[in-house]
Amino acid sequence: MDSLEKQLIRMELVQRREEGCDVTAIESRVQEALADDATDDAVFVELYDALDALAPATTFPYEEPSELEAIRALRPDGPRRMYLGDAEDAVGERIHGAWLGRAAGCSLGKPVEGWPRKRIDDYLESAGALPLDDYIPYTEGAISPRLKSSTRDNIEFMARDDDMDYPILGLLALEQHGTDLTSRHMANTWLGRMPFHLLYTAESVAYRNFVNRLWPPESAVWRNPYREWIGAQIRADIFGYVAPGWPEKAAELAYRDASISHVKNGIYGEMFVAAMLAAAFVESDIEKIVHIGLSEIPRKCRLAEAARDTLAWCRELSDWEEVWEKIHEKYGHYHGVHAINNAALVVMGLYFGANDFEKGIVVTVRGGWDTDCTGATVGSILGVKFGAGALPDKWVGVLNDRLMSCVRDCNDNRISELAERTHRVASAILAPAEEEDESEPIGDGDGGLPGTWKMDLEWGDLILKVDEDLSGRIEMKAFGETRKIRNVRIEGNKVRFAFGMPKGEVDMDIEFEGTVRGDRLKGTCSGGGFEFALNGVRI
To answer: Are 278 and 240 in contact (CB under 8 A)?
Structure first.
């Protein structure tokens, strides 16, 4: 079996080609090295670096940046924020519907995850379950016993699945940070709450990069050939739930999450889904919801093209299976876990499920590829559109209001409670922000940080001293020690720096991220998989 390094470089060749790079010359060198059984270092370092250095050909017809401002500069017009009006009273019920719909769609697709469409339909036909009008039936020998708890007549709860772990992780991070959430905060939440062996593809690579002190956005690109796959797209939902009627905010929060593990279309997939979810609280027309989602990502990107193509095929053809054939013909060359082809299936499922929750999740899952992911996304968006009370009991009642998860301290959850917590976060985000005291100057640029600050910490005060050249040190009275600060970065009022905190015989790397406002410095310290607040005043 090939080493991990060799597996990654094979995938990287595909990824770079899809990004519009000419890999011909390097590919021949890679194949030669693999045939000669070259050492891993030779393959992994020299040739991988050569692939990294490639740029898309000038003839590549797409514009696909990975930075938020560049993405926004290329997006089409859209309703950045929508008036909730009477829909505001139903937000809690819609959020509950979203959690239920996501769980139902995920459960439906879970037993056949990764199966091609023909295999799914052949199995359903052999089991007497075609056309599908309920959960997938269980047949011993055809479906793994470990998936039996997600099959017809065997469901007692939403079984653990990474598609349901991620909205819980996002909720935890949002409860702690609100709209101040950063990519680093999300990385720390993963480290503190998720076991590594239950992360996959791009998320597994990003986690490994965190452990090796590569933080966002570097964590998304270093030796990560899965960076445009579906992993970020399945993490979008919570950010749409907490920004009802506010597609731009939903997409922004989704960006901060996506950029820890993905680039380009991998990021766009999460922003697209989050914006659609935010729009679905207000807009009932599915085509308009899709277009609002597209208004938050670059007009000339491959994922947007796939979504527009799918909408056009849906309008032209009355049969979802004919639409699927079109999708498969044009986008079937992507990996079954890629963001682009699976986003097309999501659009198809939404279109045909516009007035029928069951049809939406069923046609999506029967489309194959990443069935638990696409089923969950379609179920989530339709759950917002219809609300919890309108969802068929056949699909959501069997879950018994329970969701299992591997997220630390959140292993057995009540879906209704997760929805209530999400509604509280949404209410806080929608509430008018407190106005800043205009009499208090706000620090701008370097001038806001130099000086001496007394920082409050639960086990003792810290004294932060920053010189004009942005060198500095922290005096830790509780430990009787002083540490230099390093890697100081300032962007407007935002401040970041790192320092070492003593732990036994070694120093633990800590990174502070916060905001200077006049004589106040407020932020969060993180490191070693945990976080703590660190706030101070100028003295």
So the answer is: yes
pLDDT in tens, 36-72: 877 767 777 889 999 999 999 999 999 999 999 999 9
Looking at the DSSP bridge assignments, the partners of residue 502 are 507
pTM: 0.88
Per DSSP, the three-state class of 332 is coil
Asked if 156 contacts 190 with a C-beta cutoff of 8 angstroms, the reply is no
Nearest in space to 273 (alpha carbons), one of 211, 200, 171, 349: 349
* Helix/strand/coil for 140: strand
Of 524, 533, 529, 489, nearest in space to 508 by CA:
529
Q: How many CA atoms lie within 13 A of 504 on its CB side?
A: 2
Residues with Cβ within 8 Å of residue 347, at least 6 apart in sequence = 290, 306, 307, 310, 311, 314
Contact between 271 and 246 (Cβ < 8 Å): no
Q: Are 55 and 21 in contact (CB under 8 A)?
A: yes
Helix (H, G, I), strand (E, B) or coil at 281: coil
Strand pairing category for 530-538 and 506-517: unpaired
Q: Are 164 and 103 in contact (CB under 8 A)?
A: yes
State whether residue 438 is helix, strand or coil.
Answer: coil
Q: Specify the long-range contacts of residues 468-477, CB closer than 8 Å, at least 24 apart.
A: 470/446, 472/497, 474/499, 476/501, 476/502
